[in-house]
Automatic annotation (TrEMBL):
E.C. code: 2.3.3.13
Alphabetically ordered keywords of this record: Acyltransferase, Amino-acid biosynthesis, Branched-chain amino acid biosynthesis, Cytoplasm, Leucine biosynthesis, Manganese, Metal-binding, Transferase
SUPFAM superfamilies given in the database record: 2-isopropylmalate synthase LeuA, allosteric (dimerisation) domain, Aldolase
Quaternary state and interactors: Homodimer.
Top EC category: transferase
Cofactors demanded by this protein: Mn(2+)
Family per record: Belongs to the alpha-IPM synthase/homocitrate synthase family. LeuA type 1 subfamily.
Name of this chain's protein: 2-isopropylmalate synthase
Gene transcribed to yield this protein: leuA
Gene3D superfamilies: 1.10.238.260, 3.30.160.270, Aldolase class I (3.20.20.70)
Length: 510
């Protein structure tokens, strides 16, 4: 069996999804989960793009040991130097350097001739290879490039020291047969191609990212790049869980396998969906709510007789479990902690006790606590400790023909208590106007989204907001039994992130 390496760019290309904004703690949680999932290479960010990205790549590079960690750099020495500072402590420092090769990018974006691009690419790979043991080189917009030039530049960067060559379909333009032919052309026209591993990086503009990635494997690619849940720039990237499952289920055909720990897929997908605020469509392959649901009579009959009649993937294979233990108000600490461990959360006693209290509060209001409820509680708690503002009290008056009014009490980290009241045209607006007064900041609400976790009359409410202040955009999430409480929590969560970003800026200036 051929081993296919999976290169996860959820934290770089995935974070390029409009509206996604992860903080350091969230990126670290995701990176640790990607490591557990068995990802071979984690692209943790683009260190030269911002101080925040630099910091998170550095932190991930020194924390993650079982996956290789990489960062992106343009073909300029400054980007490579910054990436080195961020990555030098990783177990296997690896750089991902790129430059565009298509006529349209050369003429309109880079404003360079093919000769200049070739020269820059070679110089930068040589420069990077002096620092990094592994240099991956990418030909941005490869699929709209002229093949003779692509072959020429690939041959030159291999001579210059690239160990991995990536052929990205940057704009999601290719189709399976076309993409396969590009790889085939390179294999036939690049004399030193056997010295590198070939990588595929596909975008989903035509809905073909996974199909194109599989075509690349058939044509000799040994590394596939993508993201979990397929998030990413525009229509997103290839969903790695789908590539891994296609290889697993159809190993008879591909004779290849990834090293993914398949039962970790569901948890990884849930974590990334929660932290990015990007919900998963119910019909999404492998991780969607309906992926294993059988609705029609003939299918149900078949599945009852033998699940293989209509199920090509068993839910357990990808970590979707039917849990026989139902947690509720009568559950004790043992069942609670056992379930958390099964969900992959290993917590200190103190953390587990705090969460147990929260669980009991929730169980008083909600009959059965589902895995999704627990997941939301724990993830929310994990990324929300040590914050500047905490919600201490919330009261909302609402009535037809009355003006909605909110009264809120916040506690600051230094112990100060802030209390304010304000009105609004609706209850949520009254809450947000009150919070704006408490915080004495000019904050603009850009987005507000509400969803129930699992549905049903006693479902938890999850709110996602995006706010902007002084040119800084951040997102926030809140989970609570009550919609108004989760709305307030989401806003406060966003404010705490704003506070952290501004604090970081001040520290950098000093
Ligand atoms: C296909 C991809 O996904 S590529 C990765 C995309 N990701 C990002 O862009 C991350 C976020 N980006 C940023 O924060 C910023 O764009 C930065 C910090 C990287 C650069 O910011 P700025 O210096 O202000 O430049 P700006 O973004 O406006 O323009 C990009 C510049 O890089 C140049 N450039 C683009 N790609 C490359 C490359 N691979 N190698 C060298 N130069 C490049 C462009 O030609 C342009 O140069 P110019 O200023 O001489 O015209
Ligand atoms: C930086 C490169 C690899 C990229 O993301 C793309 O071309 O889509
Ligand atoms: Mg990309």
């Amino acid at each position: 069996m051929q081993k296919i390496n999976l290169f996860d760019t959820t934290l770089r290309d995935g974070e390029q999804s409009p509206g996604v904004n992860l903080n350091l703690q969230e990126k670290l949680e995701i990176a640790k989960q990607l490591e557990r999932l068995g990802i071979d290479v984690i692209e943790a960010g683009f260190p030269a793009s911002s101080k925040g990205d630099f910091q998170s790549v550095k932190e991930i590079a020194s924390t993650v040991k079982d996956s290789s960690v990489t960062g992106l750099a343009r073909s300029v020495t400054q980007d490579i130097d910054i990436a080195w500072e961020a990555l030098k402590d990783s177990a296997e420092p690896r750089l991902h350097v790129f430059i565009a090769t298509s006529p349209i990018h050369l003429e309109h974006k880079l404003k360079k001739t093919p000769e200049q691009v070739l020269e820059t690419a070679v110089e930068m790979v040589k420069y990077a290879a002096k620092k990094f043991p592994i240099v991956q080189w990418s030909a941005e917009d490869a699929c709209r490039s002229e093949l003779p030039f692509l072959a020429q530049i690939v041959e030159a960067v291999i001579d210059a020291g690239a160990k991995v060559v990536n052929i990205p379909d940057t704009v999601g333009y290719t189709t399976p047969a076309h993409y396969g032919s590009v790889f085939q052309y390179l294999k036939e026209n690049v004399s030193n191609i056997d010295k590198v591993s070939l990588s595929a990086h596909c975008h989903d503009d035509l809905g073909l990212a996974v199909a194109n990635s599989l075509a690349a494997i058939e044509a000799g690619a040994t590394q596939i790049e993508g993201t979990i849940n397929g998030i990413g720039e525009r229509a997103g990237n290839a969903a790695l869980e789908e590539v891994a499952l296609a290889l697993n289920i159809r190993k008879d055909f591909y004779q290849a396998e990834s090293g993914l720990v398949l039962p970790e897929i569901k948890r990884t997908s849930d974590l990334i969906s929660k932290l990015t605020g990007m919900t998963i469509a119910p019909n999404k392959a492998i991780v969607g709510k309906n992926a294993f649901a059988h609705e029609s009579g003939i299918h149900q009959d078949g599945v009852l007789k033998n699940p293989l009649t209509y199920e090509i993937i068993s839910p357990e294979l990808v970590g979707v479990k039917q849990n026989p233990i139902v947690l509720g108000k009568h559950s004790g600490r043992h069942a609670f902690r056992t379930r958390l461990v099964e969900l992959g959360f290993v917590l200190e006693d103190e953390q587990a006790n705090v969460l147990f209290e929260k669980f009991k509060d929730l169980a008083d209001k909600k009959k059965d606590i589902t895995d999704d409820d627990l997941f939301a509680l724990v993830v929310h708690k994990q990324v929300n400790h040590d914050v500047e503002y905490k919600l201490e009290g919330l009261q909302v008056q609402y009535g037809i023909n009355n003006i909605p009014t909110a009264t809120i009490t916040l506690q600051r980290k230094n112990g100060d208590v802030v209390q304010e009241a304000a009105t609004g045209s609706g209850s949520v607006e009254a809450i947000y106007n009150t919070l704006a007064r408490c915080l004495e900041q000019d904050v603009k609400l850009l987005d507000y989204r509400l969803q129930s976790i699992n549905g049903g009359p006693d479902a938890l409410a999850e709110v996602f907001v995006k706010v902007e202040s002084d040119g800084v955009e951040v997102s926030g999430r809140g989970v609570a039994f009550d919609v108004l409480e989760s709305s307030a929590k989401a806003y406060i969560n966003a404010i705490n992130r704003l506070f952290a970003v501004k604090q970081h800026r001040v520290e950098q200036e000093v």
